Amino acid sequence: MKVALIGIGKIALDQHVPAIQHSPDWELAATVSRNGTIDGVEAFTDFAEMLTARPDIRTVSLCLPPVPRFDYAMMAIRAGRHVMLEKPPGATLAECHALAEAAREAGVAIYATWHSRQADMVSAAKRWLSDKTLRRLNVTWKEDVRRWHPGQGWIWEPGGLGVFDPGINALSIVTEILPDPIHVSGGLLEVPENCQTPIAANLRFHHPKGANVAAVFDWRQEGEQTWEIEAETEEGILRLLDGGARMLVDGVEKGEVAPLAGEYPRLYEQMARLVEHGGIDMDLRPMTLVADAFTLARRETVAPFIE
Ligand code: NAP
Question: Could you tell me the pTM of the whole model?
Fold first, then answer.
């Protein structure tokens, strides 16, 4: 199947292009970007033009930041194309609901991807937790924004999510592995005085069976980077490390120790299934937690962020 990549920026180049090139299901047939191109692939600068010129391309994969994404997604659905959305699937929940409804009416597939859910040990963690009694779960997602988001001004603007841009990845894993639903009960957002979005966040969650669930996201982490979820149950302690690539139960490594890999190939496999059988895969639980954090958490102004 032919796919067009829209928005040739960091994630398109780092992950989407190699995942498509190695996929047995997909062929990269066109790109749309004001600046980026891929060698040997037809390049457009205007999305509407590409949709008209290439009716043979039935699927588009949107790798834009969240704010411009809705208009592109709606244009694609109205042109009868299947749509794959980078995370977060929109700038607001209402946009995501509107896209799902429009896709349903148009009879096209739409996929709100959550790449971190495809990390190697996430499904094993879900299986392990499925019959355990949770006492406590702590998310620690601390990384250096200068290292991972160089020059990305949009993350500090309204809709850019700030530290929730990586934080939502952790929440996509938590909502996948926990058998019970959680919701935000309070927290603190630290917002640099020259920015619109938080550089750090501390959240507490309500758990229906009384477990103590909390998350810390921080973009000011230098040196060692931490993407960890620790779940203490009555039956033992599970730790998911390196963004879900590794899993330990009571200190014992489960599975092979391998760097994070395979997330994007799995997303494109799932998109192929959705296109073949028609389908809407729009799990908005991670996004709901983030929206609720913005609604409910206290705000504190902190030192300006200078890149
Ligand atoms: P990026 O490199 O800053 O931007 C991606 C591309 O979007 C840019 O190259 C730009 O393409 C286009 N773009 C930006 N603003 C636009 C606008 N207003 N209108 C039209 N096009 C615009 O961002 P990224 O890191 O790839 O992230 C894109 C999405 O992927 C985000 O939602 C992010 O959360 C997600 N993601 C990123 C990472 C990561 O490690 N960076 C990992 C996983 C997921 P042109 O200027 O060439 O047109």
Answer: 0.97
